[in-house]
Write a structure and sequence with these properties.
Layout: H1 7-38, H2 41-68, H3 71-88, H4 95-123, H5 129-139
Helix pairs in contact: 1-2, 1-4, 1-5, 2-4, 3-4, 4-5
Amino acid sequence: MRQTDRSPVRRLALARLVSTAGTGAADIAAAYLIYRRTHSAYWLSALFLLTFGVTGLLSPLFGAFADRHDRRRIMIASDLIGAACFAALIPIRAPGAMLALLFVASLAAVPFWTASGAAIPNLAPEGQLAWANSLLSMSG
C-alpha cells in the first residue's frame, strides 16, 4: 500500500454506510411492524431493549473476537447473518418470534462494528489515522 493510498479506508467507510443504512431501515420497519401488530408499548420497549441493549453489552466481548480473526470475513459474515434474519422475518406474524429473530440480527451486527473499528489503524496510511477515524465516524 502506498503512503497516500486512502482507498482501503474509503471502501471500509462505504461498507459501514451501506451496513448502517440497511440495518437502520430494517430496524425502523421492524419497530413499525411490532407496534402495528401489537399496539403495545411493552412489545416495542422489549424490541429496543433486545436490539440496542445487546450492542452495548456485548461490544467489548466481540472486540476480543475481532482481534483474533480475519476482520473482513467477520464483517461479511455479520452482515449476511443479519440480512438472513431480516429476510426470515417476512412470513412471521408472532411478535415473540419476531423479537427472537431481531435479537439474533442485533447480535450478528455487533462483530461488524468491532471488527470495522479495529481495522482502521491497519488500513489508514501512515500519518492519516485522524483522517481515517473522522471519515469512518461520518459513515456510520
